[in-house]
Amino acid sequence: MEKNVKAPEKPPYGIIAVLLVGAFIAFLNNTLLNIALPTIMADLKVEATTVQWLTTGFMLVSGVMIPLSAYLIQKYSVRRLFIIAMGLFTAGTILAGAAHVFPLLLAGRMIQASGTAIMMPLLMNVMLISFPIEKRGTAMGVFGLVLMFAPAIGPTLSGWIIEHYDWRMLFHFVTPIAAIVLLLGSILLKDKKEKVSMRLDVISLTLSSIGFGGLLYGFSSAGSKGWDSPNVYVTLTIGTVSLVTFILRQLRQEKPMLNFRIYQYPMFALSSVISMIVTMAMFSGMLLLPIYVQTIRGISPIDAGLLLLPGAIVMAVMSPVTGRLFDKFGGRLLAIIGLAITLITSYYFSQLSLETTYTQLVILYTIRMLGMSMVNMPVSTNGLNQLPVKYYPHGTAMNNTMQQVSGAIGTALLVTVMSTRAKSYGTELAADAFKQAAAAGKAVTPAAKAEMEQQIAMQAMLHGINDAFFVTVILTAIALVLAFFIKRATQAEDTIGKKVPAKKHSQKLANN
């Protein structure tokens, strides 16, 4: 029965437009705060380890809320969920903009995250059920424009606002737009949903919250605290045990909160792995490049943000184009070409030096974003296309959850590689420098020693960044090999229910 469900003849463009604007504002907010963190530290008198919770806390809430979104999408109407999501986001934005102490700012940020975590799976699910498979690539390309362009322009916009206004203007700027979108959504969205008798499994919710939250916190903390910190390995252990228990519980339930059986569909499973690797590779550019240009090269925050802007524009322009190409050629060709471009540019980023010019960085990053734009949405859409309609909410929730987890893992992995390799290189370079000075019979003055240590620290950090980029080369190479196994997906039958006797299965579908 489920395989015969068709997309409506005329997609609900009004609903999609409202959702897209709401999602754009929510996604834009994700990266607006990054360049403002030093200013917030100085204004609210907090340390770097504390201010990082504005990012880590956002990821934690998203990791906890996204698995719940599959249940919410199935139980409630689009209108109701949109109002809840935008209402939470708007309330959090107002609270953060009024904050004069850090705990209030953090609370506002986490409330924002709870709304954003609902918005993304909701929009993706509406896109999937509104367009037939043969037109879905183009539709998801437009969605990709919002998904990629909004957070990409965040650093540039943030740098300009911080340079001219107080950091709170980042929230004051978003508040009226979010309020207008919330008002328009409550007026224009008219969809109704039949009452669905679904009960929230509190035990599953608790296990998923501890599991995903523990993993995200542990991996996010590893970069700064080190893998040998009790805060890291104890949290990771608790998170892993809780997550395994959660998965086993979902596999035993008839109506799971998050259906892990969808990984029985090969194209979805393959797309999920590739998307996770690409997310980790993408974080390398977003994380390591700003450190390189600001810390090592001394480039200003506004110029660091502008460096990323051409890549964001290319990704935004290419997203609808790759959507159309996906409809025509499928995901395999696009993924292979895109990952090959990403692999080559990642290798060049692993060869950075103190002489690498600003123009070279802009061109290299822009080409890298071109490659990634050919991978992200086509691969994800191809995987979702194989799922029966009833599993769309689970597929979108699973993809978004895995992106949060892979983003946290990628960040922790790359920061750890960068810091450990930089420390190792620093020790070696310092030993060599002092040996050469001793061999030459030169006395090292305190001023010369300080200057030498500063130069060594910069060189060591540069080597550490290059090694971290090389890790992304290896990861991208794995994704490229996997891309050769992609096939154009067609909507599958509900193979998850195959073992159920025919009579019982028909009754089960009727109940759904």
From TrEMBL:
Is Transmembrane helix included in the keywords of this UniProt record?
yes
| Keyword presence, Cell membrane | yes
Q: Which GO terms describe its cellular component?
A: plasma membrane
Swiss-Prot/TrEMBL keywords: Cell membrane, Membrane, Transmembrane, Transmembrane helix, Transport
Q: What is this protein called?
A: MFS transporter
Similarity comment text for this entry? Belongs to the major facilitator superfamily. EmrB family.
To which species is this protein native?
Mesobacillus subterraneus
Question: Where does this polypeptide localize?
Answer: Cell membrane
**One MF term in the entry's GO annotations:** transmembrane transporter activity
